[in-house]
Design goal:
Strand content: 15-25%
Strand order of the largest sheet: 2-1-3-4-5
Largest sheet: 5 strands, parallel
Radius of gyration: 13 Å
């Protein structure tokens, strides 16, 4: 299983508070919008990453992960599984400490590559669901 509680806890509590959210836009109907707000309420700095580079929840957006001009700790991936592996590779190149694939986002090969690069990774889970479970 890719969602060990220890890994989830380490990502939230030890790896840093800057979360790049790939796929986050101003579309309030998308899951990324609500999850980003939950992360903010729990002390995380969100960094919207979307081709439109829109500001979301008061944070400047960027068109791509490599366009973010500062370090990010966690890359939270809200793109479809076919694109997720590329984002995971970009997270490794960016120097992130962890990658989080959202519910429904699964790429076993990307998971293996990311873990082999030394990053923590969670796949097919949602931080908004996991936070209350950490107690």
């Amino acid at each position: 299983m890719h969602s060990e509680t220890d890994t989830v806890r380490r990502i939230f509590n030890e790896l840093g508070d800057t979360w790049a959210i790939v796929g986050l836009s101003t579309n309030e109907r998308r899951a990324a919008y609500g999850v980003a707000k939950v992360l903010q309420r729990h002390g995380k700095r969100i960094v919207p990453v979307h081709p439109k580079a829109e500001a979301v929840h008061g944070e400047q957006g960027y068109p791509s992960l490599d366009a973010v001009p500062f370090d990010v700790d966690v890359v939270d991936v809200f793109v479809n599984s076919a694109l997720a592996g590329t984002v995971a590779d970009q997270a490794v190149a960016k120097g992130a400490k962890a990658v989080w694939f959202q519910l429904g986002v699964v790429d076993e090969e990307a998971y293996e590559r990311t873990r082999a690069a030394g990053l923590d990774m969670v796949m097919d889970r949602c931080p908004a669901i996991e936070i209350p479970l950490l107690g």
